[in-house]
Amino acid sequence: MHDDAGPQEPAVVPLDEPADGVPDVVVADADLTRAVQALAGGSGPTAVDAERASGYRYGQRTYLVQIRRAGAGTWLIDPIAQPDLSAVSDALRGSQWVLHAASQDLPGLAEQQMVPDAIFDTELAARLLGMPRVGLAAVVADTLGRGLAKEHSAVDWSTRPLHPDWLRYAALDVELLVEVRDVLAGRLEEAGKAEWARQEFEAVRTAPLPAPRVDPWRRTSGLHAVRSTRGLAVVRSLWEARDADARRRDISPGRVLPDAAIVAAAQALPRTVADLVALKQFSGKGTRRRADQWFAAVDQALALPERALPSLRGPGTPGPPPQRVWKERDPAAAARLVAAKAVIAEAAETYRVPAENLLQPDLLRRTCWSPPEPLSRTGVQDALLDGGARPWQVDLLAGPLAEALVTLG
Asked: In terms of residue numbers, what domain contains 294?
């Protein structure tokens, strides 16, 4: 009798408890001093993680910092009680920080004055290696054969005191991170991608904070259903009122007023408070309690003169237009983009790297919309470097992209 089930995945051993137990949370000054001394006396890379309260609180503030280093153990630090962690950062000078999805944690850590000298991003390394799943639990299972539970990843980390089970989860997040780094670093060397990773990590570490968005209210989910400039004015007015309220109360804007309610009001253009609360999206107890506040925002938008209404298209932004209009506006650019995407897709398959990690999609679009003149390998190379591409990306792609674009003329 033959077994047709195919090869079995190796068993994953659950990781249920930190090796040294769950440490107490650092709150007092004396405990922070102990943490700093221990971390300064440790050795080798340092595992670092941060927990936020996305979906619960306004913004992306850090509510717990987890650190583990050989010889120092694991430390859980409350950055609300200890907002200045520059001493921790100083204690780790010269140590490579190991993070998973570093771009998500570094901005918040910088607010606590924690800035690394060097990083290793285990998620980014997994992407460069072409691993099919790059979440932390999947990467830990793939590299070490250990099972890491993630059931507390979306809890409200602003809660005080933090639940013991959450603290166990937080400690486990950094328990094996350095060991994962060691395995991934070896794989990167074997694949000839270690230098690629080094350049990518440094780009993440030194990335500037994103510039404020123009008209952030235009990112309201479902905005495409609002077809009038008056309706857009209602969206803008409600979004701004909601944002101010959410900021003041330190609550996620979506919990103050859902996007669906904003869009519903923009479509209905209610003329009275009664009209507003008659909308299904405004029938909830909390929403009805603030109905006067929301209607005031709607009424303000309804009273605006025509000249003050926002445009349907939105403000002009630098760079190419939406891809859906390329064929109509510039057929040659549309053809260049098709050819360039084919080059990227082939390279992604050859090197087993996701297309978006081979080259930033926005940079690819910009290069195809406004190609360098003269159109040559050197021109494409310079355009990619000027647009922020890393040297390894330019080495791989400048030649094939130039060949594809030159062929089109």
From this structure: 216-308
